[in-house]
Amino acid sequence: MKKTMAILCAAAMLCGATACSGDKNESSTVSVSEQLHSYKAAAIGMAEQFSGITTFSTGSAGAVLLFGELKSGGWSGFVTDGKFSDYKEFQFVPQEDETVQSAAMLSYGKKGVLTRRGADSFIYVYDAENALEKTLECGEVFDENAPYARLYSNGDDGFVISFGDERGQMHLIALSAEGKLLGEIKCNDTVTGISCNSERELNVLLTDFKELTVNSVDVKSLTPVKKSSCKSGSSSGYAVGAGAGDYKLIMVADGAIYGLTETDKVRLANFTDLEFHDYEVQDIAMVSDSEIAVLLYTGEMYLLTEQDISELKAKEVITMATYSEGSILDNEVKYFNQNSDKYKIESKELPGEYWDDKLANLRLQIISGDAPDILPQVMAVGVDTVNPAAFADLYEFIDKDPDISRDDFLPNVLEGMERDGRLVALAPTFEFHTVTAKGSYTGVRENWSIDDFITAYKNKPADKEMFRFQESSARSGYFSEVVRLPFFVDYDNAECHFDSPEFIKLLSFFNDEKIGLSMTEYNNLSGDFHYDLVSQPVKYGNLFVDFEQFSIPWFGQFLDQKRNEYGNDYVIAGYPYDGKRSGSYISIQNDAVAITATSKHKEGAWEFLRMMLTDEYYTEINTNAYLSFPTMKKRFDELAGYTMQDGYPNFKADDSGRIIPGEFEKREWKYWDFDKETKQVTEGDKVEPFSQEEYDYFYNLVTNAEIIRYDNEINKIVNEETMKFFDYECSAEECADMIQNRVSLYLSERYG
Description:
Distance between the termini: 73 Å
Structural class: alpha+beta
Mean pLDDT: 86
CATH class of the largest domain: Mainly Beta
Helix content: 10-25%
CATH topology of the largest domain: Neuraminidase
Number of domains: 3
Radius of gyration: 30 Å
Strand order of the largest sheet: 1-19-18-17-16
Strand content: 25-35%
Largest sheet: 5 strands, mixed
């Protein structure tokens, strides 16, 4: 009991409560270093026997416990060692209405299983020979509504249980060896992990996402809390487990695996070099000085075995900018690193606490020639705010490539990535943005004008809507859904037209018709608003125009929408503007990648970009891109052509529903029906494919659309000024003039 109370005192200090022994608390700052290793991952076969692994726990003398529900039925624990070859099994049979929470390795080879029945908790203790030794009735020791609870060993003198409450806050409770509650602590900071380290000390890791603190209690010597801290990244995918050798703990954070000593946080491996992602890791532990076992949330387990690093060090390193830990191109980087004999990509996180800070620092790096080699999302971060010469001309690489030419790309997409005749970026996919509507309603037509849009709204039938949920949504949100700001900006000439009659007319419409709530009304909103989200709101709801649709991701959606949701009463209205130019456009905001002109690794960077233009990219490397609008014309034509057939190939799925990259089966075009009672979507009859005329219309619509430029600073300015107008603080003309003046000044400074 004395030892367990020491843990509670420690927990009080680490969780922000009143410390019991603050004078004895040891604090230190941990330095961050790098000692990269190369690991080969091998699947752990015994994990495949479980339908779900609840616990992966390590104990003394190298013992490892896997506990969960077997595919064959029933709960079982496998006690093995770090080789995961042989194991001893114990079976656990819950009582009626008993819920299994977790299990843990205890001292002396014992195991514990934590369960709950109603409000009462139980701990079943199994001895070293896997026989049930005793059952502890713990009573109501933690909230019966807690979504999860995990059991930990506190040496031979009791237990510690962590659980989260309904608000997501972590609690720690200490129990005696007899299962009696000794106390409870509520953690004020975010708990990123709890584990016993290699010396069987209980460790709790806390973060405020600026600093990570490791708080430990020596359960053998009864020493008070030892606290060490280091800078924390922005990762939300933490996992922590026992270390081995030089490392007391091992943890997943900030896109890497780290080993922790008393004084150092050592980066051991980057996830760009592994087969899985950091956010997939549920538990991790070192099972020897050179081996790490990893449990994924999918139930898969891997044993990472250290390899000769000389081959890894021999590769030419290419840096890629990231805006948080890891990269938005994680899958691409993993594939490239594993398949390239010459090159290796490493992430370089941009400095700055907030998004705007990171973008500002990136611009400075580009201007000074100190930016990373590869820049993802380059269109979104402001490619037009610096000299195009700061980026490598990718035409130089395309023109020298024996397998790719300029003719292989959709001309309009390629042109949209040019600046001053230079190809400054490439994107493997793009999005098509438009507004779709029922064509039989007054005012609705293709490429409608602002007057058409207003006419359609004023003449809508009583049972139809253009905007949903107005009683609980801000007017500014509806305005941003309808008005495309780039239509009013001429980036090439650094000019804007927000004082135009068209823009003023749009402003006035939203206030005159009281679309949504003013900012004062929205900020003072009270009450509980609940809406049933309807699949296909035009077909099953009361919309006749869909402004809520962010984009059309691939050609097949035109067929599905026209036949299924709109019943062939289908018009590509586009966003309302002047009624002359197309109100539809293409965006590559999140897909465009550039190479910096000052890069010393352009050839390797091009190999990476080139990989994203291959067939393998769409079918194996990034399966999310498979049913997208591809930049490559051959693939675009292939996907578009399926709309004139009775179906299309899509990925096969395994028994768990996960797709199998590279393996396909035919999917027929079908009608889909939504049952409002069951909230289920059911399959209907076959859909008639497009005629040649229909196909040609949509094909030309996309291949003639322009890529619009986007600058978030302009969006901020417009949002700030329109919120004042929507709160009746100024007239539409005054609002438009203010926006015109501010954006004009910004354009002259950035684009002039």
